[in-house]
Amino acid sequence: VSMTERDDTRNDNFMTFDISGPFDLTRLSELFDDQIRDEITSVDGVADLYIYGEREKSLNIKLKREAMDLYGMIPDFVVRKINELTRIYETPRADWNNLEYTITIANSIPDIKEVEDIALFQYGDQPIRIRDVGDVTMGQARVRTMSRLNGNPTIRVRIEKEVGSSVVQTARDVREKVAAALTTMPPGFRLDWDYD
User: Fewer CB near the terminus (10 Å): N or C of the chain?
Assistant: First the structure.
């Protein structure tokens, strides 16, 4: 759950940086996810990260026709169950000190095992799970946009600050965490601050 300021009359940008290097987008995303993302999100005052240019993950389910026919299921039923995992819930907007706030609760798709274990319905006394009617894999979605720096793929990261947190202290803490994470990166990895 994160609480961020919403004021459509302003275009605030707290911190933004680009990462690049001699890696494909998948490897660049892995490096960011494995070594930088958690460091930044652990900083007091950081509300959220927005990632641009990253090759998104794609949940793939190859349904087994025989199993679907056996239980009288249609693909739309499985799709609806998966969509229940990815709903975003927003609370009513709240006004305070002439600003509008939104609290958002986002559910994300858990690991493949948890998806396979989702019960679709009861068949007698036995739950029928997604793994009973299909094979689940995690893949890469199609690239929709791409940016490059010196011929290398680039990912942009925008950091959003929590309401009421210190701009100076949060920025200082983010830079310290990022600097520490950079010491573990492979040769050629590059991080450029665009806005701070």
Answer: N
